[in-house]
Amino acid sequence: MKLRIRMALALVAGTLAVTTSGRAQSTAPSGVHLAPGQWAVDGSIGFAVPVGDYGTFLSTGLDLMGAAEYRPSSSPFYFRGEVGYSHFGGSCGFGVDCGSSNVLRIDADALYDFPLQNTKLNVYALGGVGLYHVTAGADVCAVVNGVAISCSTSSTGFGINLGGGIRYPVNPVQLFFELRYHLALTGPGGLSDAPFFPFQFGVRYPLPR
């Protein structure tokens, strides 16, 4: 688990290193950043990759996310509350179905923008904590007297997420791509965690003030 957390921190550190060099000379381009006291709504669709022991026999799956953002009047940071859903199918090979797993998450994140010089493109970092509900199941877990028996398991626990993204304005919305590392500190069956990487393509709409 400590190794996975270090990997996530390294991902964010890399994002900061790329953007910090142009930070001092840059100015915030219009149409990319939320103004103090402004709200925005987000939505994204993409794919997620399960990793570690959790990813054994699971395949890359669908990821969905909806969120609301707000920038306080006296803070360089802004905040996001989000609901996300990831679905992973599974196969043992040879056409055998090994079941599937789903992760439903509710996260609270802090975000920070790093404006780049002479461009509308914006790079940002984010991280936060949340509540994760992980389920897993299979259509066939055993056969008793010729009858297939299905099974399922679920668990709920806290987790963390770290990552970054890029955003570009196409008025009146902003398009973004985001990569994050989620570490649910709970897992199906005997697993203690359920790590995965969502790759999200989305739209952000700043609400008029």
Task: Give a short account of the largest sheet.
Answer: 8 strands, antiparallel, barrel
Helix content: under 10%
Which word captures the global form? Answer: elongated
Low-confidence stretches: 15-29
Number of strands: 8
Going across the biggest sheet, name each strand in turn: 1-2-3-4-5-6-7-8
Class in CATH?
A: Mainly Beta
Tell me the fraction of residues in β-strands, as a range: over 45%
Roughly how many Å apart are the termini? Answer: 43 Å
- Overall mean pLDDT stands at 83
Query: What fold name stands as the CATH topology?
Result: Porin
CATH architecture: Beta Barrel
Q: How large is the count of helical segments?
A: 1
Please state the structural category: mainly beta
Question: How many domains?
Answer: 1
- The H-and-E topology, N to C, reads as HEEEEEEEE
General description of the model:
There is one protein chain. With 209 residues, the chain is mainly beta. The protein has one domain: Porin (Beta Barrel). Helix content is 9%, strand content 62%. It contains 1 helix and 8 strands. It has one helix at residues 2-20, and strands spanning 39-50, 61-70, 78-93, 96-115, 122-144, 147-170, 173-184, 194-206. It has an 8-stranded antiparallel beta barrel. A hairpin with a 7-residue loop joins strand 2 and strand 3.
Structural topology:
Layout (H helix, E strand, L loop, with lengths): L1 H19 L18 E12 L10 E10 L7 E16 L2 E20 L6 E23 L2 E24 L2 E12 L9 E13 L3
Descriptive labels:
209 residues; mainly beta; 1 helix; eight-stranded antiparallel β-barrel; 9% helix; 8 strands; elongated; Porin
